[in-house]
Write a structure and sequence with these properties.
There is one protein chain. The protein has 55 residues and is of the alpha+beta class. The chain has a domain of 32 residues. It is 25% helix and 15% strand. The chain is built from one helix and three strands, in the order H-E-E-E. Strands 1-2-3 form a three-stranded antiparallel sheet, with no helix packed on it. A hairpin with a 6-residue loop joins strand 2 and strand 3. The protein starts with a helix and ends in a 14-residue tail after the last strand. It comes from Salinirubellus salinus. This is Small CPxCG-related zinc finger protein.
């Protein structure tokens, strides 16, 4: 049931121009890049040490 509610909510947001995909690390050569602040981190990073973002 939670999945159906989430799908409805995602549809509502996407119809209004919001992104509904779950955010993840971006890759920049051999580094991970935070999608929030663009800080670069090693491949073993689990959280951004610049802004605190976590996937």
């Amino acid at each position: 049931m939670a999945t159906a509610n989430q799908d409805i909510f995602d549809e509502f947001l996407s119809e209004r121009g919001h992104e509904t995909e779950s955010a993840g690390w971006e890759r920049d050569y051999n580094k991970k890049r935070c999608p929030e602040c663009m800080g670069l981190h090693g491949l073993d990073a689990v959280a951004c040490t610049v802004c605190g973002w976590e996937p």
